[in-house]
Amino acid sequence: MTSKVGIGATADQMALANRAQKLMKNGVDTPAHIDSMTPTGNTDTPGGNEHVIGLTISPAGGTPYAVSMNQYIYPAAPFAIGDNVSVKVDPDDANVVMIFDKA
Fold first, then answer.
1. Residue 27 gets which letter from DSSP?
2. Which of 23, 31, 34, 101 has the fewest CB atoms within 10 Å, counting from its CB?
3. What is the pTM of this model?
């Protein structure tokens, strides 16, 4: 008899999912620019590829600043170096961000 238990998400994937959930609820919509994207080689079940993404965040009325973060990018919603995007910024930590859409 074979096991019906599949391989679940990694701890890093769960952390990214939890971050996304928090930012969906509490994140501040902020414009940003993708400066760099480096694939990590990690993939997830829905077909996303993880990247380390360098962004310049431009908060309203504030000074632009640089952050680096990991995020899975999917073929149905691609992003590329040079794109202007909308991110959600954690109101408790301005370095915790996630891309949610193109600007």
1. P
2. 101
3. 0.83
- Residue that is written with structure tokens 């073929």 in the block: 75
With beta carbons less than 8 A apart as the criterion, state whether 94 and 66 touch.
no
pLDDT digits (tens, 9 = 90+) for 15-29: 877 888 889 899 999
Q: How far is CA 93 from CA 4, 11, 56, 74, 84, in A?
A: 40, 21, 15, 26, 22
Other beta carbons less than 10 A from residue 69's beta carbon: 17
Is 16 in contact with 71 (CB distance < 8 Å)?
Answer: yes
CA distance 47 to 78: 12
